[in-house]
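Subject: Protein record for review, amino acid sequence with backbone structure tokens
Category: Structural biology, sequence-to-fold work with a learned token vocabulary.
Format: Residues in single-letter code; tokens as whole numbers, each standing for a residue.
Body of memo: The sequence and its backbone structure tokens, given next.
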Amino acid sequence: MKLWSWNVNGMRAVLDKGFLPWFRATDPDVLSLQEVRVEWEQLDASVRAELTKHHEVCWFPASVKKGYAGSATLSRKGLGMKHTPGLGLPAYDGEGRMVVSEHPGFTLLAGYFPNASAELVRLDFKRQWALGLIKVMKARHGKGERLVVVGDMNVAPEEVDLANPSTNRKNPGFTDEEREDFRGYLKAGLVDVFRQRHPGEKGLYTWWSQRGGARAKNVGWRIDLFLVSEALVPSVTDAAIHPEVKGSDHCPISLTLAV
């Protein structure tokens, strides 16, 4: 089973940049989208028909602010996945942050993690999200579930995960607090499987600023991540980043599971 995740930075924008041909060619078993920024009904009927031809769709736009944030999970028909929008955390569910999808072999928590924002004005908001998510992780682990957690996590875990760590120490996405919260996910029993397979390797990024030719120079950050429960690690056969895929300031990532 191949799972994909992509922050599309606006679904309507990425549709104009080749999303549907990519979707057809990739034919994902499961696809998580972040920053969709649009209501399902606002998409053209032809687009909705294409997305639902072979997949079940759980579209979870923000309700507190139209055109903001939002996430979605698509799963191939016949996989038997049950999708639930939201984590049961009202302050975050209103922003369409995460979809929970249950499969017989694992539970997928997929979506768009908060950004600490300029001047770190949402750092406390983001930290409370992390605490709530860790509680969810621990509760599901306590019931024997195996988890896959994926999305734009808006944090580079280690210095190797961004091109310029020294000049970004106090910037959103690389503060000590955000990195500490990320380590909390690992302490809750999850593994960063891509980094496990590429220890210490530099230049592996998933997001690039749209300024200064950052993508062409590969001056980026690895902030889109797959985390899996320790018990699920033996089932991971591949974890990859796909920087060749354009259309957004993020690139897709993928995880292949033998389940």
User: Anything to note?
Assistant: Residues 141 and 250 are 30 Å apart (CA to CA). The chain has one domain: 2-257. The longest strand covers residues 106-112. The longest helix spans residues 123-142.
